[in-house]
Amino acid sequence: MREIANELLRTKDGLAGPGAWLFMFELTTDDWEGLYYDQLTVDFNEEDTVTGGTSSASATIKFVVPTSDTEGCLIISGRGATNFQDNEPITDSRGGSAKVTAPLPDGEFTFRRVKNTENITFDSNEYTAISMTMDPFLQEKESVPAFRVSIGNVDQVMEGYVQKAQGFRRKPCRILLVHSDNLTEEPVIDETFDVMSVECTNEYVTFVLGTRNPFLDFFPRFVYDRKVCRFEYGSVECGHSGASCDKTFASCLSLVNQARFGGFPAIPGGRFDA
User: Fold this and answer.
1) Contacts of 249 (CB under 8 A, 6+ apart)
2) Domain span at residue 253?
3) Is residue 107 part of a domain?
4) Which of 59, 107, 163, 164 is the most exposed place for a label (fewest CB within 10 A)?
5) CB atoms within 10 A of CB 224
């Protein structure tokens, strides 16, 4: 950690552009997939269900990320998210329509950002330029070595991701440091940490990155609640996608998905509450 801190201190004040050091940030979640599309004819809608015309695969659209008038990416979740096929037509229930293009969903989705004035491509991956600051070394009150990475939040896009992902807690975050004149060479820094916590303001979304402290883990792992499902809607544990759910047993029952309800209605506490 100290070696990383020293490298970041040495390079963090460099200006973007030729001859500059580039700080890159990758955040990966296995709760979502990336479904890329082209030949868009009608815009897609968040929280709707996208369905493949050939595979019949379906998933919930979490975010729509256009890259041009006819191309972009759907960030999706659900059990069928990895079953879409290349070049098949996809639609949602409100008329969204396009065709799938590579790369196909592979079990996870990665957000890639770079502290720079323009996007860059490194190791065949595109990193989106954004305002970014870093606090290379801090000592949290629990004495776990950690540091902060703050990503621009003026448009509140990243904040939206954080809210729907429940803070990305414990998700892997990779940091890289490369020189803008040597994008084909190995990075000076290439390390992966866990997201310990996240704080959102009007200016920045700040991730505290570090290593897991086993003494701070929840035990038991889950909060055991009679009324509220502990699973994310559309996840593998939930096993349902499509209509919205408010995480109550009554909602699960209406979706005929009560066998996968993630609450514990048998816990003592008075009458049974649906």
Assistant:
1) 227, 229, 258, 261, 263, 265, 273, 274
2) 218-274
3) no
4) 107
5) 11
61 three-class SS:
strand
What beta strand segments (E) does the chain contain?
Answer: 21-29, 33-42, 49-52, 58-66, 72-77, 89-92, 97-100, 109-115, 120-122, 125-130, 132-139, 145-152, 172-179, 189-200, 204-210
Task: Tokens 């440091």: give the residue.
Answer: 177
Q: Is residue 242 part of a domain?
A: yes
Torsions phi, psi for 220 (to 5 deg): -65, 170
Query: Residue 70: what are its φ and ψ, rounded to 5°?
Result: -125, 0
Report residue 175 as tokens: 């940091």
The predicted model scores a pTM of: 0.70
End residue of a domain, out of 171, 198, 216: 216
Token code pair at residue 118:
């323009």
Quote the number of domains for the chain.
3
148 and 208 belong to one structural domain:
yes
Cα separation, 1 vs 7, whole angstroms: 10
Q: What is the DSSP string of 182-238?
A: -TTSPPSEEEEEEEEEEEE-SSEEEEEEE---GGGS-SSSS---SSB--SPTTSTTT
Of the chain, the percentage scoring pLDDT greater than 90 comes to 44
pLDDT digits (tens, 9 = 90+) for 212-245: 666 655 566 666 777 888 887 777 788 887 667 8
Residues 67 and 93 in one domain: yes
Residue 175 lies in a domain: yes
